[in-house]
Structure formats: structure tokens, C-alpha cells
Write a structure and sequence with these properties.
eight-stranded mixed sheet, four-stranded antiparallel sheet, 28% helix, globular, disordered N terminus
Length: 329
């Protein structure tokens, strides 16, 4: 399924005016780097190595809301093919792309243009994707399956890092039937990158999101009240903690606020796959992670569909209003 962006201000396709507070680290400050997780150690490492990686994942979710995953088993060729194939979609004629303009928030596929060109598709439990250009759909299906396998393993280790049984999140949220939404973002060069923003500050609706890009950097994350640029290693995933993982963990793991900046030289592309529950699933703090006296529930249970509608209708625009203003007790 797919959704159209609505109620947007009229903006140029080269970016929206940057009105977000900007605080960068000064050159004399020690620059922290986003944690890197070696996925292969979860699969074939020693018990001590695996335990250490689980601890590192917990630390990254708690302190950063973000980590980079290397050696994850999805081939570099498939990731490169996915980038190239989706680039081909944006080179289609406007008439060809028009058939993928969704009618509502839950249309299976949506293509549109705001401050960026984008393609959004529901790829699980039912797979939807454009069949133009030739080969795109097959590549996207293989890629989304690989990303889902990585996310499934990460959910196990996130559960473990919380002191829960490894399949807790997967079973309690019925992720076999959960939704997986792929968003492809195409940012053209901007004549005035210093005064424009590719995608304003926002957080993701999912439990976690997996992002790849075409080698052109532009992702920035908010860490300790400063915008930090992210430089992913080649063929790595950027894993973002989403709003609903923060709710499920009762705030122990923090949703990541991030944004995309533009440049005046090269087209940047990113492909993001969000992994969440079924739309009618009610998500609240896990009972095992709350305590009436010392750690009471901080968020009210909310139907996933309700939040998705608020976000996609642009009623959760940072910093004026966030998801947590809507659900915080």
C-alpha cells in the first residue's frame, strides 16, 4: 500500500527553506561517531563476541537512536542494483510516473514531488512496487526480503538487550504479518544548499528503519542537541530507532530525530525501509519494562494506523508538535 503527502506548503523541488535550529559541533569539540555493529558476529561469532554486540546494540539504541550495520549478508551488488533501478524510475516520463500517484494514504504505491521526488510502496506482507522500468520490481522484491531478514535478526538482539526473550518483539507485535514500507527519496542538486533543506527534521513511524544511499552523503542526526553528519561505510545499513520502539521500551530506547541536507553538485538518493506492526496493532509500553512505582508507563497505547495517518498528513511537524506530544502520559 502507499500514501500521498498532503497539506504541504508550496515549495521548489530544489528544497524547502531551512527553518530548523542548527547547532553543529565546533572544531575544538571531540567529534563522536555513530556506533558500528558487525552483524556477522551475531551469526558466527563466539558467545562472548555475540554478547558484546548485543550490549553494543542496546547502548546505541539508548544513547544514539541509531547505528551502522556492516557485514549483514545482503550483497553489495544487490544494494547497488537497487539504487540504479530506482534511479531509472525517476527518469521515466511524467506520464509514466503518473500512474503510480496514490489516491489516499494507504494506496499500495505512491509517487510524488514536494521538496524531493519520492516513491513509497508497501512491500510486506503483500508486495507492491512499480514494474517500470523493466526489472525494477524483481530487484525491489529481492532487496526488501534481504532487508527484512536483517531486521528480523536485529529485533531478536534488541529484545535480548532489553532483558527480554529473543523473540519477544517479533511475537508480541506479530511481525510476520507486520508492514514493511519502502521509501525512495531523490534529491536533485540545489542552487542554494545553505538555505534549503532536502527533508526537514523528523522521526520515523516504525520500530526500526534501514537506510542505504547512493554514496552521496546528506543524512544528519540530532545527538546531544547537535546535528551530526553520518558517513556510512560502503554497503552498510543505517539503522534508525523509530517512534514505536521508543513507546514499546517506555522511553528506554530513543527515537531518532534526523534530517536530509542537499548539495549543489550531485543528486542524492536514499532508500529507507521501515519495519512496523500491522496497521491495526495497538502499541504501548511492554508490561515487562514498566513498574508502577519506579518506572510507570510514559505513553498511552495507540493504534499504529492512527499515528501513521497523523504523520503522513503532516500533523506531527517538529519542533511544533511530535508524536510524543500526542501519546505521552
Amino acid at each position: 500500500m502507499l500514501s500521498v503527502e498532503s497539506s504541504l506548503p508550496s515549495v521548489s523541488s530544489h528544497g524547502v527553506p531551512d527553518t530548523s535550529p542548527t547547532v553543529f559541533m565546533s572544531h575544538d569539540e571531540k567529534e563522536e561517531t555513530v556506533p558500528i555493529i558487525d552483524f556477522s558476529l551475531l551469526i558466527s561469532g563466539s558467545p562472548d563476541q555475540r554478547s558484546k554486540v548485543v550490549q553494543d546494540i542496546g547502548h546505541a539504541c539508548r544513547e544514539w537512536g541509531c547505528f551502522l550495520v556492516i557485514n549483514h549478508g545482503v550483497s553489495g551488488k544487490l544494494m547497488e542494483d537497487m539504487i540504479k533501478a530506482t534511479q531509472g524510475f525517476f527518469h521515466l516520463t511524467e506520464e509514466e510516473k503518473r500512474e503510480y500517484v496514490g489516491e489516499d494514504l494507504f494506496s499500495p504505491i505512491t509517487n510524488g514531488k514536494s521538496w524531493r521526488d519520492y516513491l513509497r510502496a508497501f512491500v510486506h506482507p503483500d508486495f507492491h512496487f512499480p514494474n517500470k522500468p523493466p526489472g525494477l520490481r524483481d530487484i525491489a522484491q529481492e532487496y526488501s526480503k534481504g532487508a527484512r531478514e536483517v531486521a528480523t535478526e536485529l529485533f531478536k538482539r534488541i529484545s535480548e538487550s532489553l532483558g527480554l526473550e529473543e523473540n519477544y518483539i517479533h511475537k508480541q507485535m506479530d511481525l510476520d504479518e507486520g508492514i514493511q514500507i519502502m521509501s525512495v527519496n531523490h534529491y536533485p542538486p540545489c542552487p542554494q544548499p545553505a538555505s534549503a533543506m532536502g527533508l526537514p527534521p523528523h522521526s520515523d513511524h516504525s520500530f526500526v528503519s534501514l537506510l542505504i544511499q547512493n554514496g552521496i552523503d546528506g543524512l544528519e542526526i540530532l545527538h546531544k542537541e547537535k546535528w551530526v553528519p553520518v558517513y556510512p561505510p560502503i554497503n552498510s545499513f543505517v539503522v534508525n530507532v523509530g517512534d514505536h520502539l521508543e513507546v514499546l521500551t517506555n522511553g528506554k530506547y530513543k527515537s531518532l530525530l534526523h534530517r536530509s541536507i542537499v548539495n549543489n553538485n550531485s543528486t542524492r538518493m536514499s532508500i529507507v525501509i521501515g519495519h512496523g506492526p500491522k496497521l491495526d496493532t495497538i502499541v504501548g509500553p511492554a508490561p515487562e519494562l514498566v513498574d508502577a512505582q519506579n518506572n510507570p508507563p510514559a505513553y498511552r497505547p495507540t493504534k499504529y494506523r492512527e499515528y501513521y495517518e497523523l504523520q503522513q498528513k503532516n500533523k506531527l511537524l517538529w519542533p511544533q508538535r511530535t508524536f510524543f506530544d500526542h501519546v505521552r502520559l
